[in-house]
Design brief:
- This protein is mostly beta strands.
- The protein has two helices and ten strands.
- The model has no long low-confidence stretch (mean pLDDT about 90).
Length: about 140
């Protein structure tokens, strides 16, 4: 898989299919309470651009003032998180055919992670406050 290659993905039942281009072949995990409730665990995702739906349109749930989540209306698969009005999406690695293609490099909202699990991988870890500060800095510089 080459850098900037468009990849195909889908939900469990196949009704929602999509194409997206990962920015890097790296994935991160979000431990925030919303992602855990929405995905039934941690949300493992890769940052993508050019998300194009080629199957049925996913349902969109606006989970905050700044973010929304896409999922299949039929099978309920959690597919992506994106900023409202953003051109990038955090797409579930498990919606792609080869989730092994992504190196596990980061964990966010580690301060919200329950104490009953931990990943053995050596990753960059950020608290919720650090994530929000980084996101705000990107917006202020016009890079979001």
């Amino acid at each position: 898989m080459g850098k900037n290659a468009k990849l195909n993905g889908r939900c469990l039942c196949g009704a929602v299919r999509f194409e997206a281009t990962p920015l890097e072949h790296q994935m991160g995990v979000c431990h925030c309470g919303m992602c855990r409730r929405w995905s039934g665990g941690t949300f493992m995702a890769v940052e993508c651009e050019g998300l194009q739906i080629v199957g049925e349109e996913p349902a969109i749930y606006r989970s905050s003032d700044w973010g929304e989540r896409g999922f299949c209306r039929k099978c309920g698969s959690s597919l992506f998180w994106r900023g409202v009005g953003g051109d990038r999406a955090a797409v579930s690695i498990h919606a792609f055919e080869d989730p092994d293609a992504f190196a596990f490099v980061s964990e966010i909202f580690v301060d919200e992670k329950p104490a009953n699990y931990a990943f053995a991988n050596d990753t960059k870890k950020m608290t919720g406050a650090e994530v929000i500060a980084a996101f705000t800095a990107k917006q202020d510089s016009g890079n979001a």
